[in-house]
Amino acid sequence: MSLYPVGQFPAYRPRRLRQSPALRQLVRETQLQVAHLVLPLFVRSGCKLRRPIAAMPGVFQLSPDELLREAARAHELGVPAVLLFGIPDRKDAKASGAYAANGIVQQAVRLLKKELPQLLVITDVCLCEYMEHGHCGIVRRDKSGARILNDPTLKLLARAAASHVQAGADLVAPSDMMDGRVRAIREELDRLGFQETPIMSYAAKFASAYYGPFREAAESAPKFGDRRSYQMDPANAAEALREVALDIQEGADIVMVKPALAYLDILYRVKAEFGYPTAAYAVSAEYSMVKAAGAQGWIDERALTLESLLAMRRAGADILITYAATDVAQWLREK
Ligand code: PBG
Ligand code: ZN
Questions:
Q1: What percentage of the chain exceeds 70 in pLDDT?
Q2: Nearest protein Cα to ligand 1, atom 7
Q3: What is the pTM of this model?
Q4: Deepest in the core among 81, 146, 155, 207, taking most CB within 10 A?
């Protein structure tokens, strides 16, 4: 059977199915619902602190009390999950803050799980925010330059993930792009008795200019070099499928494509090829661009945001990670 009317049918008129909102809803192929949304949040120590991110209007570095307020507001609107990033007080060469039992993310997780037990708490697992040099792995510098030490980094990532889960995190999301980190984290979680805790891996994460505003938000810009030795080349789609296959082999339960809108082809292929639960991360610059143009009155921020998220769903995303999650939840309610 063909997907398309091929001539043997009496005049097929697509317009017939567009006559009313109810009819359009009946035949709609893709739904955008609050249940799909994940809200990323940035936490740092302090009290009553809401430090704005210049390039991301409406996004703040929050102290734990304010984080709780922000998470509660989203949760009341039906947003099922948050994704936490931490900004530590001090950075060093071994990212101690990333796996400190009383690190900022670990504190935040305990608070959120105590006050909002129904809210899913996902933690970003990476070292860049905690490293003085801002890279996602351990760096060795010598005469020939600087190198990322992949395998020694795995232990630290596994420790960080374990400390998040011990604090109560429901899911961990490694974003570092070191080879073998999903297996290292899976083995460590299993060893500690957390066989039931899922891993959402940033499986196809591209070295992207779309992360610019995030590095201000998370204070994680590399002090030298860039991330192209561990993040993916935007030119490569087949390689993205191999990265995803590897993460699935290593034990990833959910795979992510990041950024989202400029990588819908990747998203589509990942979902078609593996059929795994798939997340799209609408990253910082995707948010900033819409905010900037919206503030000028050049675009309709709300319509454009909803259309973009719907496109990610259509391409195959089950999960939508977006800084606009709370606004979107509100808009979907008003609709
Ligand atoms: C850190 C990390 C980054 C993002 C998520 N985790 C930045 C980077 O890799 O440089 C980007 C998110 C965004 O831009 O919204 N590993
Ligand atoms: Zn990182």
A1: 99
A2: 211
A3: 0.96
A4: 81
